[in-house]
Amino acid sequence: MSTLGLLGFGEAGYYIGKGLVQEGCAGLAAYDAALGTDGPYRQTVLDRARDAGVATRSSVAELVASSDIILCLVPSQHNEAAAMSVLPHAGSKTLYVDATSSSPLLKERLAKAFKDKGVRYVDAAIMSAVPADGHRVPMNCSGDGAVAFADAMRPYGMRITILDGDPGLASRIKLARSVFMKGFEALCIEAFLFAKTVGLEKEIMESVSASFGKEPVETMMTRMMCTGAIHAGRRAHEAEEARDLMEAVGIVPTVTNGAIDRLKRMEALGLKEELGGLPPKDMPALYGLWEKKKFV
């Protein structure tokens, strides 16, 4: 039976660790850099560990010594330092699972460093919200240790999808998805900041919710993008009107300005005239037009 060590015990580590303990995952331990400080976050980590039933370790070396699998959950800006702190203590029996949101290029470089030492490396991408799903949060995994990680953790309910590819593949998928998810989050913030300012937050929430409920999201996105080939100009003008109203009430239209720029770039392709005012029939047809026009 493999033992799991959590490197980083913030929100993700807490929810994943707590769920795994409840599933009967024995010997689970964690180390967080905050444990080596006197700051207020140290107590937060200790309280979370106690609540989750997860043991704490006093150092990275101690965590690696007591664990067959290291699941790294540190913030992405600390990923390289965390990986390098593990490497001197890791051996051929260690499985290092990098579940940070770091760039594929960094993960490729780290994978090479671990491979050079004979340590298996997994590029793991968390694909949903950990507080909502806990240890069952979907994970895409690529790299030479992906199968071993899945075999060890699936019995405890972890939802691991193995990708046929090298480290970096899982992260590329995640970051491409992040363009939508983080962009959508920023759009929601801007739209409802504006709606609240003008006293229309309830009406806008109801209207947007109704729009999303009419059809599958994939159908809606396909329709919007394909019709955008011919209606981008009109939509850009409407967005400009909204931007002007936002500015009039003191809201900085960061996302809206980006939307206007992207729609105008789409309009500049000249597809409305080329297609005779008829939208492409599906996404492959639209992708073909983008490629033909070198749309970037």
UniProtKB/TrEMBL annotation:
The residue ranges of the Phosphogluconate dehydrogenase NAD-binding putative C-terminal domain are 195-265
Organism encoding this protein: uncultured delta proteobacterium
Can you give the residue ranges of the 6-phosphogluconate dehydrogenase NADP-binding domain? Answer: 43-126
Q: Which PANTHER family match?
A: CYTOKINE-LIKE NUCLEAR FACTOR N-PAC, OXIDOREDUCTASE GLYR1-RELATED
Q: Name one GO molecular function term.
A: oxidoreductase activity
Official protein name in the record = Putative 3-hydroxyisobutyrate dehydrogenase
Q: Which InterPro entries match?
A: 6-PGluconate_DH-like_C_sf, 6PGD_dom2, 6PGDH_NADP-bd, HIBADH-related, HIBADH-related_NP60_sf, NAD(P)-bd_dom_sf, Pgluconate_DH_NAD-bd_C
SUPFAM superfamilies the UniProt entry points to: 6-phosphogluconate dehydrogenase C-terminal domain-like (SSF48179), NAD(P)-binding Rossmann-fold domains (SSF51735)
Taxonomy, top ranks, is: Bacteria, Deltaproteobacteria, environmental samples
Q: Which residues are responsible for catalysis?
A: 174
> Which keywords has UniProt assigned to this entry?
Oxidoreductase
